[in-house]
Amino acid sequence: MARPLKEVLQDPEVLADIHQHPHTFRFCRGASLLVTSTHWPPHNYFVLGSADGTKGEDDGGHKETGSLVAIEGPMANVLSVLAHTLNFTYKLITPSDNLWGGQLPNGSWTGMLGQVIKKEVDLALGPFSVTLERTKVVGLTTGVMIDDRCLLAAKGATEVNPWSFLMVLMPSVWVCLAATLLLVWGTHMLLVFVIKRPVDWKLMVEIYFRLLRTLFNQNVNWRSVTSLERVLMGVWLLGGLVMTWCYSSNLTSLLAVRRIPQSIQTLRTLIDDPSLTLILTPNTIITTALAHSQEGELKEVHRLDSAGRTVYVQINDFPRTLDTLVKQDDHVLLGTTSVMATLIAQSFSQTGECSFYLSRQKVISNIHSMVVQQGSPILPAISYRVRQMIEAGLYTHWVETRLRNYTRCRKSPSSITVRTSIALTGIWGMVVVLYAGLVAATATFFVELVIARIYPAAQT
């Protein structure tokens, strides 16, 4: 039976071998390590056993659902490689408080970090974020990954954009259309000047509105036109018909499009919306970074706590929180991107729908690594093997394997096409434009009546 690591490391020959040859070192007679971990998808998955001998994956890391048999996932693979190459066995335990670990006001540490600091365990899987405070009390291996934090929110109900009729053509096309209208109008006026017809402002306005009526498929009464004018107006009529057909067909397609709101993309949006509540995990690097922020958006996010807009939930309860608070569209999660992606993947596996999304803004990016006791001689040997796995791309591959379903939602469309009857809620923008035009036309008509009464000679 292998001896505990503490006893093995008391052998001077073992210590000398580790110090001189960390790349090739192996425990000749083996060693037994105490390893602590907690359920943290996609990195660690606990496998629990029941009294009848059946096994199942822990849905939240609660030990009362069964006894811990083993762990699976990327960090379990890393541990297996280390155990094989260094020739040690290990026993898995979990922290009594089921926490990663944070420093208390009295200077002591909780969670897995507390176990390492108190020398109750030899290795903590994590992976843990590398911070200055942690480097002072524990030994950190070579980084396993670099991860950042982002917001997770629920997608809103599908809605129609009532102003979609303005988006049928790009702004550049609208500008070109207006420029072409002015060009044709100027060319027409030049033809009138060449054939020496009398030109006044009434004729200029009349020709302009003729061109505009043609573009809107309205009837036009042409009088005293020459062959050159007919050619010009024929070209304009053909171009206007093509543009009108393109516009009407694309508008029909746009009316069938439903937009899926994904408005919470930045911390600023979260801060400025008083209806939103932030969900955090207590005693983590996120809460520490927010508390130590002196200015900027992170400081404003920290102030949400005093405003009653922050809720603290253990990471094991995130799946249930996702189905309750976050789905109500008034709560958002802030956590590591890999964990947020795992929650979306699990939700898609259960429902077949991409009901959540991640924000574009990423914050608090740092390195994550495993933890050993401070000054532990096996740190160089572990770090070398971890670096070999990272450089080979193994850890990234293992994580991506656990996030297969997330790829379905990672680039899900922000709009969908439906077949349904057109409702007033989808076209009220066009109705507003129509009635605004009618009001303007009516006002113009009455202005003309008033002018005609004041200046009777203007009627001729």
From TrEMBL:
Transmembrane portions of the chain: 173-195, 231-257, 422-447
Domain Ionotropic glutamate receptor L-glutamate and glycine-binding, residue spans: 50-118
Cellular component terms per the entry's GO annotation: plasma membrane
Keywords (A to Z) from UniProt: Cell membrane, Glycoprotein, Ion channel, Ion transport, Ligand-gated ion channel, Membrane, Receptor, Transmembrane, Transmembrane helix, Transport
Biological processes annotated in GO: detection of stimulus involved in sensory perception
GO MF entries: ligand-gated monoatomic ion channel activity
Location in or out of the cell: Cell membrane
InterPro entries: Glu/Gly-bd (IPR019594), Insect_Ionotropic_Sensory_Rcpt (IPR052192), Iontro_rcpt_C (IPR001320)
Topology of this chain in the membrane: Multi-pass membrane protein
Keyword flag NAD: no
Gene3D superfamilies per record: 1.10.287.70, Periplasmic binding protein-like II
One Pfam family in the UniProt entry: Lig_chan-Glu_bd
Family, similarity comment: Belongs to the glutamate-gated ion channel (TC 1.A.10.1) family.
The name this protein goes by in its record: Ionotropic glutamate receptor L-glutamate and glycine-binding domain-containing protein
Native source species: Petrolisthes cinctipes
